[in-house]
Amino acid sequence: MKTFTTFIVDMMKEESLFASQGGPIIAAQIENEYSNIDWAYGNDAPLDEYGNLNQPKWGHLKQLLEIILSMEETLAYGDRHDVDYGNMVSGTIWSHNGKQSCMLGNANNYQEFTVDLMGSKFTVPAWSVTILPDCHTETYNTAKVSVQRSNMVKLLNGEGEDNDEGNSGLTWLWRPEGFEQLRNGSVRGSLFTVNQLLDQKAVTNDTSDYLWYLTSVDIKPDDSFLKTVVTLQIRTEGHVLHAFVNGRYNMPQSGLKNYGAHYDDDLVGVHGPVTLISNKGTPMEVVKVLTGNPWTYKVGLQGMERGVFKETRRPKKWRANSIPSNRMFVWYKTMFEAPLGTDPVVMDLLGLGKGTAWVNGKNIGRYWLTFLAGSDSCSNTCDYRGSYNSNKCLTNCGKPTQRYYHIPRSWLKNGNNELVPFEELGGTPMNIKLHAVTVGSMCATPYEGQKLELSCQGGWVINQIKFASFGAPMNSCGSFRKGPCEAPNTLSVIEKLLNFTMSTHNLIRVFRSRPHRRKTSVLQECLGKDSCTVEVSENKFGSTGCNLAANKLAVEAVCGKYEQ
Fold first, then answer.
1. Measured between alpha carbons, how far is 21 from 531 in angstroms, rounded to an integer?
2. 178 exposed, middle or buried (CB, 10 Å; 0-12, 13-18, 19+)?
3. What is residue 506's predicted lDDT score, i.e. its pLDDT?
4. Is the separation of the CB atoms in 196 and 295 below 8 Å?
5. Percent of the chain with pLDDT over 70
6. Parallel, antiparallel, or unpaired: how do β-strands 362-368 and 451-455 relate?
7. In whole angstroms, what is the distance from residue 481 CA to residue 485 CA?
8. How far is CA 562 from CA 158, 369, 453, 507, in A?
9. Number of other CB atoms surrounding residue 285 within 10 Å
10. H helices of 131-239, where?
11. Which helix (H) or strand (E) is 13 found in, with range?
12. Which domain of life is it from (predicted)?
C-alpha cells in the first residue's frame, strides 16, 4: 500500500497538480471505508487487502483506462453531441479534427437494447456503457468482463492448501494480564481522580484502546444491600465494557458503532448513570447512584506498559505449561518461520476472541472474531445492475469482519519471527495458522479480436488447462461446457502433445518427443509459463463454423509449482 500510494502521489507531483505547485488539488485523502460489516472489503477494489491484483476488477479497469487514454484528445477537446434513443438508452458522440469517438449507455436494470449508430447495429447490455473509440468498433463494455478471473487460495505455510482442520503445531507461551484495583484510594500509574465520568477518547488521547474507570462505595454491615440480590447497572458507549466488583469479573456489555457521519463526535466510554440496585423491579427496590463518585482513571494495560509484545532475547514471566483456553485477559507468544517465496503472508487468527496482535513488535491489527455479521442477508449470486444500496451483494454473512491478517514481507525475518496476541474475551491460540496467498486457478472469456492474458504469481506457473473452447462456450467459470460449435483445434492438439499424471499436489506435465504440425493451441502457448498472452482469432485456433458476430474463447487454468 505504501508503494502504491507513493507512486500515485509522485505522479501527481510530476504533473504539478497540488495547490502548492499551482495546481487544482488542495488536499489528498486516503479513505478505508467499510460501511456495513457484511460488505465486501473495499467494495471489490482493484487491489485486495494483501496487495494482490483483484481480478477481474484490476484487468477490466486497466482495459478501460487504456481505451479512455487512447481517446483522450477527442474527449477533452471535441464537440459533444448527445442522442436519446428512448427507453433510458442514450449515446454520445465526440468529434475533433476529423476523428470521432462514441459511447452508448443503457440505464435499464435488466433489459438490453439494440440501437443504430451511424448505420451499424449495437446491442447494449442492461446497466452498462459501450465504448467505440472510432464510433464503428466496440472495444469495451462495462458488463462484458473478458479478462482473467482469479481464484485466490491460501497455502498453509506456503505449501498445500489449508482445509481448516487441526491445529497449527506452533509452540506457545503465555502470561496473564493483571487487573487494576484501588488500594488505599489510588492506583499505580493513574492519571487523576475526579467526581465525574469522562469520555474515553478525551482521557486516553488515542494512546490506548483501554481505559480503567475505578471507584469505591462503602456499605455498612447492617445495610440491606448485603442481604439481597444486587444489580450493577451501567450505561456505556463503547465496544465492550468489562466490570469487576471486588476483583470478581462480571459479564461484559458490548456494542459496535464504528462508522458514520461525525463519528468522531460520538460519545465513547462510560457516561452514566452507574447504579447499584437492590431488589430490582420489586416494591423493595433501593438504588445507590455512583455516577458522581470520585472516579480514578488509568489508561492502558500492564502488559502494554511493559512492552511484552516487543521482541525480547530473554522472555520473563512467560509460562510454557498448561496453555489456557477461553481465559480472559491473557497474553500468548510463539515463534514461526515465514513461508518461502514472494506471495503475501497472512495470519489466520481463527480461535481467538477479541484483542490485538503483534509480529516482531509491530501491530498487525485489532481482531474480534467472536462478533459475527448477520446470517440472513447474503446470496450465492451477485448482480450489481441497478442503483447501489448497502444491502446489495453482501458477503461473509455469519462470519467475523476479518479473520486473516496481512503481515508485510518487510516485517518478517529469515529464521524465527515472533507473534504475540493479547486475548481480551477468551479464546485459544492453538488454531492460529500462517498462510501464503496466491492465484490457485483462473478463467478468462475474451472475444475474437481480443487477447487472452493469463498470469500466476509467486513463482508458480500454469500447469494445467482444465477447459478451453473457442466458438460458443457456455456457462461460467468453474462450470464451463462446450457450446453447439467450436474450433476443434483448441484443445485436441495439446492432448496429443502432453500426458498429465497426478502427483500429490498438482498435475505434472510430461512431453512426448514426436512433433505435431497442426495449428498452435492455447495450451502450447501457456503451459509451463508464469504468464502468457494469446491472440484470439480463427487464424490461431481454426474455424468454428458458428456463424456468430464474434466467437468467444473460454479458458480455465490452474497454477502450481513447476515440476518436470
1. 41
2. exposed
3. 35
4. yes
5. 86
6. unpaired
7. 11
8. 15, 37, 19, 10
9. 12
10. 200-204
11. helix 2-14
12. Eukaryota
- Alpha helices (H) along 265-389: 302-305
344 vs 504: which has the higher pLDDT: 344
- The SS3 call for residue 352 is strand
Long-range contact set of residues 241-250: C-beta below 8 Å, sequence gap at least 24? 241/270, 242/328, 242/424, 244/179, 244/181, 247/179, 247/181, 249/328
Residue 315, pLDDT score: 67
The backbone torsions φ and ψ at residue 531, rounded to the nearest 5 degrees and listed phi first, read: -155, 160
369: nearest Cα among 445, 424, 310 = 424
The size of the chain, in residues, is: 564
Q: Give the 3-state secondary structure of residue 134.
A: coil
Taking CA atoms, 407 is separated from 4, 42, 160, 411, 563, in Å, by 17, 19, 19, 7, 29
**pTM to 2 decimal places:** 0.80
Over the stretch 263-312, which tens digit does the pLDDT of each residue have?
778 888 999 999 999 988 888 888 999 999 999 999 999 999 999 998 77
φ, ψ for residue 67, nearest 5 deg: -70, -45
Alpha helices in 71-142 (DSSP H): 72-77
Q: 73: which residues sit within 8 A by CB, 6+ positions away?
A: 96, 97, 99
Evaluate whether 491 touches 468 at the Cβ level (below 8 Å): yes
What's the DSSP call for residue 31?
Answer: -
Residue 254 has pLDDT above 80, yes or no: no
Residues ≥6 apart with Cβ < 8 Å to 229: 278, 279, 280
Q: Dihedral, CA atoms, 152, 158, 161, 166, nearest 10 degrees?
A: -130
Q: What is the gyration radius of the CA atoms in the chain, in angstroms?
A: 31
On the 0-12 / 13-18 / 19+ scale of CB atoms within 10 A, 75 is middle
Which one, of 482, 523, 528, 490, lies nearest residue 506 by Cα? Answer: 528
CB atoms within 10 A of CB 538: 17
Question: Which of 7-11, 202-206, 336-340 is predicted least confidently?
Answer: 7-11
Lowest mean pLDDT among 348-362, 385-399, 461-475: 385-399
8 A C-beta contact, residue 98 and residue 77:
no
| pLDDT at residue 446 tops 90 | yes
Give the containing element (helix H, strand E) for 526.
Answer: helix 522-526
Residue 25, beta-bridge partner list: 18
CA–CA separation, 463 and 348 (whole Å): 28
Residues 6 or more apart whose Cβ sits within 8 Å of residue 141 = 124, 125, 128, 129, 130, 131
Q: Which residues of 287-311 are buried (b: 16+ CB within 10 A; e: fewer)?
A: eeebbebebbbbbbbbbbeeebbeb
Measuring CA to CA, which residue among 440, 439, 409 is closest to residue 345? Answer: 409
